[in-house]
Specification:
Elements (H helix, E strand, L loop, with lengths): L3 H13 L14 H17 L7 H12 L7 H14 L6 H13 L3
Helix pairs in contact: 1-4, 1-5, 2-3, 2-4, 2-5
Length: 109
C-alpha cells in the first residue's frame, strides 16, 4: 500500500498542477476548501494530540483557523499544503495518502 512517505514527491507534483481554474469533477468542496481541508488533516495528524472522538472537532477547528482572509490565495494555500506534506513525509499512515489522493483525483490531478 502506498504511504505518504513514499509518495510525497508525487503528491507535491500533483498539488503544483492545481490552478485557480481547477474545478472538482465531483463533490461539493471548492479548490480552496479542499486545500484547507487537506492542510487541516495533516496539521492535526502531525500534532498527534487527538483522541478518536475529538479528531473531527480538531479538523473543523483547524479549518476555521485556516479560513482567514490572508490565506485565500490559491498559491498560498498550495504552498501551505506542500509544506505540510513535506513536514509529514515521515508519516507512514496510508490513510493520509489515500485522503490526499482522493481529493486530488476529484480535481483531476
Amino acid at each position: 500500500m502506498k504511504t505518504l512517505q513514499h509518495n510525497h514527491t508525487d503528491i507535491i507534483s500533483r498539488i503544483n498542477n492545481l490552478t485557480a481554474q481547477s474545478k472538482p469533477r465531483r463533490g461539493k468542496l471548492s479548490l480552496s476548501q479542499m486545500l484547507t481541508h487537506c492542510i487541516a488533516i495533516l496539521q492535526v495528524t502531525a500534532a498527534h494530540q487527538f483522541s478518536p472522538e475529538s479528531f473531527a472537532d480538531q479538523i473543523l477547528k483547524a479549518i476555521s483557523k485556516s479560513a482567514s482572509p490572508q490565506h485565500n490565495a490559491i498559491h498560498e494555500e498550495k504552498e501551505r499544503l506542500i509544506s505540510s506534506v513535506k513536514q509529514n513525509a515521515d508519516n507512514t499512515d496510508a490513510g493520509i495518502y489515500q485522503n490526499l489522493d482522493e481529493h486530488l483525483q476529484r480535481f483531476s490531478v
